[in-house]
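>> received
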Amino acid sequence: MRPGITQKVTVRGQGRTETEPLNCIDPDSFYIDWEVNSAWSLQFTAYQDGSLAYSMLDSQASIFFDGQEYIIKQAEPDANSGQDSLDVVATHVYFELSRIRKYKTYVDPADANKQTDVRVNGGTQIENDNDSDNSDDDSDDDDPNAQKSTSQSKNGNTTTTTTVTKTDETKEDSEQENQVTYKIDDVLKYWIDGNKLGFTYQVIGDFPTSRIEQLSDGSGTDMLSKITEHWPNAIIYPDNKNIRVYSQEEFNKDHNNRLDYEYNTTEFKWTFDSTSLTNEIMCIGGKYSIDTEVDTETDDDGDGQPANVTKSAQGVIDDARSYLGVPYVYGGAGGARGGNPRSGMDCSSYVSQVYKDFGIYVPAQTEAMEPYFHEVSSPQTGDVGFYGPHGGSYHICLFLDPNTIIFEPQTGEVCKQEPASWFYPSWVARNDQMAAIVGSGTGAGDSGGSTSSTSSKTIEYYYFAPFMYRDEDSIKKYGEYPAEPFEDGRFNDKNAMIEVAKTKIQPHPALSVEVTTYTNFKPIAGDMIHIMVKSQQISTNEAVVGFNWYPFSSSNPTSVTLNSNTQNILDYQNARNKSLMDAINSIKNQNGYTQPNNPESILTITKEEAKRIEQYVERQNNQQKDR
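>> returned
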């Protein structure tokens, strides 16, 4: 047995049951490397001593130390100066989770012997007995996300049937509606329950639910990635094969340890990194679509409406001119509004009325009309002219021909006809049903006692408007640093999306501390260690998030990495600000100045004084590094 090594390390060979003490380790080479949610390994060099334990050092053998099991992944033989040795790298047993794998389900969960409807291109096709007709019916009637409603209205001789179908797009890709929101327990249970490797799990602390993709295939390593991705504050710290997931509040505990520069440490190395600073993020949530189908049927004549119209360009012109002289009435009758159009119409109800005379439904409001038309470069009979931008039109006219318009103008006037150049519209648009009538060229006899038409449109809506989530405190301090847009169609609740958005930004620069100690003391993962650096006026608590521990070495001291959180950053910045204030006051005193009552007056120092302050701080930092 080499000096410094006691019987604390044991080995069990692959496929064996006995455990042997490993007494041939170089004490200076043996160390534990741990980093939160990332690494946990054991490394050492062992020398050939002819023992059974040495012969067991091979791939997949188990090393036991400090109550934990590690699996050898690398064992590299070396022969030097007549001495055979092995360089061993072993990872914590919990990484064996990668051996657990879930596959997509291709059998009926209720009956493992009954295959579902799996179609393979070019191979064997197995049909479900209930699908023998190979129907590809994808109608809305079979869409579990569609909500349909129908209403009917009658105005005079016209009956209008409106069917509205709402499709929730946040559910379109979900096989089951309840498979969108998960708890951490759900994720662990999905992979670990029933495994044959002996893994169990615990959740310690409170976690919110999270909206993630439906769990399907993947390995146990994918499970860990999902947990750390969707619950950023989760800390995975197993006890052998018991996978324990802690909240930060439960994991980070004060064990009354203290690291004091020049007392029990040799170096404090601060890393202050703003590379990943982000404090605002554009959030885009889910959508739904509204499909509106309108069936309009007009029988014989009604109040002031012609019973017979000629389905031709001239018939459209004649019908449009039949309303010349009808007074302009804002919000008046006509078209989709119903009532007697002769009593007065406005611009949109007039156009709606002419179209209605030919069995074509369009709303009686300019912006609402727009989806029923498409823009064209030059007008023809029956086309319309919109005034104002797309989505913001405020007036409309009807073209009798490419050079003539007819419209209801404004209050106090009547329906009139003018050259198109007199008041040319912002853009020209066409309705295909009207264009078909204008181009039909049929005679006056082709009118009949009734007309019918069907029109439809689809409009998508967001559940809530896309918004920018901002951390105002961070923006006030550092300015605006946008993150990549966060777009997830599964969110139909803004507040739920805000909570997730908070985890996707980093509103403060990252701050970490690497500490090298005098001794090989045993660090504790998550220990809230109190650190003191008197020369930099720093006193704060930080958690251990990583370490290298040489338990048997007298020459390799322990080094630990401490975390970064908002309070640590504020403590560090306050200390740096205090150092700067001390430097400023020192320069002031050298020039015979007195401490100003108003701290803001410091900003009035000269460029020369600012340069001297900068040199002073640099000297202080250099002195700190030389210690």
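>> The mean pLDDT is 78.
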